[in-house]
Amino acid sequence: MQDFTNMFKDQYFIITGGNEGLGAEVSNLLACRGAKGIIICGVSKEKGEKQEQLLRDKGCDAYFVQADFTRFENCQLVIDAAEKRFNAIHGLVNCAGISNRGTIIDTTPDLFDQIFSINVKAPFFLMQYTIKLMLQKKIEGSIVNILSMNAHGGQSELAAYSSSKGALATLTKNVAFSAMRNRIRVNGINVGWMDTVTERKVQEKYHNVSEQEFEEESKKQPFGRLIKPQEIAKTVLFLLSKESGLMTGSLIDFEQGIIGCGDNGMPQPLKPLEL
Predict the structure, then answer these.
(1) I want to staple 41 with a disulfide (CB 3.0 to 4.6 A). Which of 67, 141, 187, 196 is the partner?
(2) Secondary structure E strands in 9-105
(3) CB-based burial of residue 49 (10 Å sphere; 0-12 exposed, 13-18 middle, 19+ buried)?
(4) How far is it, in rounded angstroms, from Cα 48 to Cα 169?
(5) What are the phi and psi torsion angles at 213 (to 5°)?
(6) Signed CA dihedral, 12, 142, 166, 262: sign only
(7) Count of H helices and E strands in the chain?
(8) pTM for this predicted structure
(9) How far, in Å, are 123, 205, 215, 265 from residue 118 at the CA level?
(10) What is the tens place of the pLDDT at every residue in 100-133?
């Protein structure tokens, strides 16, 4: 059986949104598989410092940077922290994101700007700064962007969010093409309905879905449950590692459904738009 414990030996990573949810799962798995150092970042200082300690307990040189990506200058702050502490970056995972609701009718300019700042602008410049450092250090690194199945079009109530993930999908391919000759790989994962604490809160807040209703709906899925963060984290590590070879510019649909396939005819909006 293959030993994964030293898969990322002597390598350094940045995980945005690494203080909770999927980002925390990615950073935990990286630490277990030998990553020498990890920068995690997020808004909550309490969660960030707790996750930082968990990673250090695994023998990883972890460092939390408090960063709100609605503020552009925090992108440079994160990269500067990695350069100062590690003097190198071998991998970047853009996990941070928001999925606030808003249709084409009721999305405000402020909400639109907030979503695009976090979901598109921040990954753009984090990739720019990371690639510059990789070029400077002559590192053939890997970048993974966390997208959503909504990048294919999305739900009516997620107009701005879906648009941001569609933009990130195009950006992922463009940057992968641009950095190909430097052997820097860039891939993305279109994540489907995933079981996280945040998702449960979102379902309760926006859709009045109770914990029991959430569990019942989960069991109706083809595999009898929702996607687990650990499953996505393993896919992220595959894309970060040499196991994925020269794979670049790829967008993986990780969902319990196949785009373009269905037995109930063409999907229809649940209700008409209302002013």
Answers:
(1) 67
(2) 12-16, 37-42, 61-66, 91-94
(3) middle
(4) 28
(5) -65, -35
(6) negative
(7) 9, 7
(8) 0.95
(9) 8, 21, 30, 35
(10) 999 999 999 999 999 999 999 999 999 999 999 9
